[in-house]
Structures are given as structure tokens and as C-alpha cells.
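Chapter summary example.
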Amino acid sequence: MTVDMNDFWVFGYGSLMWNPGFEYEERRAAHLHGFHRSLCVRSWVHRGTEERPGLVLGLDRGGSCRGMAFRVAPARRDAVLDYLRERELVTHVYKERVIAATFGEGVRVPVLAYIIDRAHHQYAGNLSVDEAALSVSMAAGKSGANIDYVRNTLAHLQAMGIRDRWLEDVGRAAGALLTPPGERC
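The structure predicted for these 185 residues follows.
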């Protein structure tokens, strides 16, 4: 595969993978090294409140992440950048970065990605499964219950053949907290 290094690629690791919200020319499975998918962002609007924050995904340093890369036509680059900045940089919990991703055949390409800012007050990294599950089970915001976000994410990851065992554990534990005691196995 030949890749033009001047192409504009966007990396998705969460909802951007199945709901990019912008026009693209090509979509390819991609692997990012040095960052991993993590339920590490406190959500105070969409999936929680400031009093009872939920958790949403971020790209945190360390490890690796399987996701999707989207090639955007040059004529759409500025419009897509504007859209992504409006979508991803609302509270500036993410930093916009160009980093290298790898396609299945070993080709490395620069991709635009949104990386968690560990110094931001919404950062909630290094939570245990139980801590994350408790937050997820108790939170809801203007876009709905946090457990629905986690379940939807897991369903889409599974459909794409991507396993995230920690997130799966959080989903199971949060679901158990929502199950009435008499119905638990």
C-alpha cells in the first residue's frame, strides 16, 4: 500500500470510530503505540454532572490502542478540523496532536489524535475497576446514563473485533451494581 504522507488522517479510538461525524475518503484499521484507550475523563455534562461525574474515554499514555484512521479529502481538511475542535476541545481536557499510527501491513502514517491532558482537572486516570464501575453506575448527564455509554462502546468495539478487557470488567461490575440484589447470580 502506498500512502501519501501529506494526506490528512484522523485517529478514532472511541465514538469517532463508529460515529465520526465528518465526511472521509477512506477508513482503515490502525494501531497506535505509546497510548491506550482509557475510561479516564470525568464527564460533567454528557454522561454525568459536577456533583456526580461520569466517565468517558480518552487516549492516555502507555501501551497501545487499536482504532480507526480516516483519510480526509484535502478540500475538507479545514472543515473537519473545525468540527473536531468543536467536538473534542470543549473543556480542553484533550490535547490535539499529530502522532504516528500503523496500518495492518506495517505502513506508518501521521494521524491527528486527541490525547488526554493528565494535568487537567477532569483527568481520572488509574482508577480501579471497582472505582470506575461505581462512577459509571451512578452517573447520568444530558446525553443519558453513563452505563449506556459504556455498553454502547463495548458493543461497537466487539463488532469491530476489538477487545478491551479493563473496560469489559468495568461494564460488568457497573451492571452488577445496577442489578437488584435478588436478581444477581
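To summarize the output: The two ends are 50 Å apart (CA to CA).
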